[in-house]
Amino acid sequence: MRALDVRGRPVSCGRVVLLSWVGALVIVLGWTVAPLTSAAAGRSSESGPNAGNESTLNGVSCVSASSCTAVGYSGDNTLIESWNGSSWSIVRSPDRGTNSTLDGVFCVSASSCEAVGDYSSNGLSQSLVESWNGSSWSIVRSPDRGTNSTLDGVFCVSASSCEAVGSYSSNSFIQALVESWNGSSWSIVPNPSLVPDQSALSDVFCVSDKSCVTVGNSGSGTLVESWNGIAWSVVPSPTPGNYGGLSGVSCSSATSCVAVGNYSNGTGSASNILGRSLVESWAGTAWSVAPAPSPSVAYLYGVSCVSARSCKAVGDYASTIYSRRALVESWNGTAWSIAPVPSPSESYLYGVSCVSTRSCKAVGERASNNGVVQTLVESWNGTAWSI
User: Fold this and answer.
1) In-domain check, residue 3
2) DSSP letters along 213-233, please?
3) Residue 109: inside a domain, yes or no?
4) 25 neighbors 6 (Cβ within 8 angstroms)
5) pLDDT tens, residue by residue, 115-134
6) The pLDDT of residue 172
7) How many domains does the chain divide into?
8) With left for phi above 0 and alpha for psi between -120 and 50, is residue 99 left, alpha or beta?
9) Hey, how many other C-beta atoms are within 10 angstroms of the C-beta on 311?
10) What is the CATH number of the domain that holds 250?
11) Partners of 164 in the β-ladder
């Protein structure tokens, strides 16, 4: 998984890339981090391919019901899988350094995608960007800041206009990182310097090249920033409880956005317990906490809205003290509700992409009966979720 994991996802025991400063960040930010689990591995659902190593899928992007791309890692290498409407297949992807992983992906068409993540070089994390031209994936040079850099989310409004977000470390501080693609190169974009100097961005969504929203966390609270075509600025966002953060964002227009994450009422060393799912909404003037159901311990990592009246959010919840299961929440324009979803024991959903009210893909990981964790893909057909 990513070197800097502020989404509260389970930290992989099978693929340890966490650095010493990450543990300090979790404490400082007060993020509610899910229990440890092994890395996922092997086989996607829907007759997906066997990756042959411990693997997981972190993000997915669909351009149609028959064209989706999912990214993650397999063992120490990047993993990219493609959906053609009937089956998933592994697509060859390049790697850099060691422990290469992809955390986010966005496709503007079946022949144009960007994927972001990180890799390890000499014990340090560096940003990783890969590009799809319709026939092959290739590594694109991306700049880094500080001593460790990672990119967690990406969004493109065209093949020549993309934004990627993440974080970097410098002098024991963690700061949000934004990079921009102009069709020929990636460059670092200035964004607000936050106090305390502990902030990270997890996801980004653009409705145009002059209107973007990115979310994450700063200190112990949620963080939302907005792009107006000239500069990024912080937009006030509420933080229920004592600690909170946002992991995913999706907008159906410039005046209708949904962000998801989690929060905790714990304090001090208890800040990592009783995490509740968090949904916030933007109606054009302010962010507010949206009433949404939450199991006793739950996390939301990704969200996809096809309209102001139709959104899907995915994550996981604790079914028992020792087991976590996949979680899907659905918005119908009036209320959020927990959707029935197939949920193998020890299963997590990290990303979701919907192309219509009747077509969504959600990706993550699950544990098999022999203890090996497998990649997980679930599909929505307008009536029910299925594996």
Assistant:
1) no
2) EEEEEETTEEEEEEE-SS-EE
3) yes
4) yes
5) 999 999 988 999 999 999 99
6) 80
7) 1
8) left
9) 26
10) 2.130.10.10
11) 154, 179
